[in-house]
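Moderator note: this is an archived Q&A kept for reference. The question asked for a predicted structure of one protein chain; the sequence and the answer are reproduced below.
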Amino acid sequence: MVAKCEFVVGVLLLTVPVKKGEYKMKLIKNYMTNNDCYRANKKITPTHIVVHDTGVKNRNIKRYVQPDVEGIGVNVNNNDWNRHGVEKCVHAFIGELEDGSVATVQTLPWNYRAWHCGSGSIGSMNNYAIAFEICQDLDSQSYFMYVYKEAIELCAFLCKNFNISVDNIICHKEAHDMGYASNHSDVMEWFPLYGKSMDDFRKDVKEEMEKDINNIPDSYAEEAWNWGIKNGLTTGENPKNEIKRQDTMLMLYKFYEKFIKEG
């Protein structure tokens, strides 16, 4: 599925289209240009994605990301990560904007080397992974489900754009167990509280990606499919799903109404 991008005063708003009624990922670009990690300007070729959580009860992206753009909000405590000497940085944060809506804020270019997991007995996943933090709140299932869905859609987007295998999506704890990160428990102190594991997460990302694939017609049918949309014969949804007889009749009737009866 092709993502729709809009540029508004230097801020990237990216909305991944999904079926009507489903959650839509909102991605805002706000690079931490004052962070030493950003200034180091080291590049990687990402092969993995590492999922973190912040480990403290604070849903607000503004706690970590400044300045205030597109409704992030103002951090009046001046303890955000966009400053010299923080010595940590990820590619994105998922959490709440000032109005309480859930969004993703990208804080580094995806191919920058982030400082997010330290080193383990073998090496560091910093050298291989795109990493993001989910602002934590252990006490709210509804909030968890919103940010969980946001994280799924972000990972699906990253896997497609960087050709990353879903099997290479791991959390900080898994990176440590593999020998590529410091000893942290995230996200396994949070996800299981609401019946989710990293295996569930990887499965859900895979299903999200397959759903997107099913919403794109094969190349041999693309011209005809677009013609059908243009002429009102189909809504353009689910081009690869099996068609029911009633839907066939509906399409034939629409064809009759537009090209035979009116003609």
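Archived answer notes: The first helix runs from residue 36 to 40.
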